[in-house]
Amino acid sequence: MKSAISGPSEIVQQVAEYFSLLSEPMRLRLLNLLRDREKCVQELVEATHTSQANVSKHLKIMWQAGILSRRSEGTCAYYRVEDEMIFELCNQVCDRLANRIEQQAHQFRVLNGKGQGASKRQEARGLPYS
Predict the structure, then answer these.
(1) Helix (H, G, I), strand (E, B) or coil at 81
(2) 40 has which bridge partners?
(3) Rounded to an integer, what distance in angstroms lies between the CA atom of residue 115 and that of residue 106?
(4) pTM score of the predicted model
(5) Residue 112 carries which DSSP code?
(6) 26 Cβ contact partners less than 8 Å away, ≥ 6 residues apart
(7) Which residues contact 106 (CB under 8 A, 6 or more apart)?
(8) Worst-scoring range by mean pLDDT, 17-21, 41-45, 51-55, 99-103?
(9) Long-range contacts of 53-60 (CB under 8 A, 24+ apart)
């Protein structure tokens, strides 16, 4: 599979814009709220404890990018995730971050003398292992 990042500058720009959509925490919160089913704007406002204007602004950006779809019913606008691949991308990023945090925790434990083999080193020095 050829990497889009090494392609023409127009493609690189589009990739950067797609990732920038996810750089806003409120958009990630909204996506998470829409993970299981569509919701009306008012439900999203109540769930996020923010203004309708703020929620609508972020929904519009994701709708224009094709991540969400929108339908109207009476005076309510309902949104749902159109591009389910967005969750795969988010899951990959979360998995990578979790892995990095686990590696850092292991390094801290080793530095603190509580890593693998620490009990043997401490026993050899006559120190209790806790």
Answers:
(1) strand
(2) 78
(3) 7
(4) 0.71
(5) T
(6) 48, 50, 54, 55, 58
(7) 115
(8) 17-21
(9) 54/26, 55/26, 55/30, 58/24, 58/26, 58/27, 58/30, 59/30
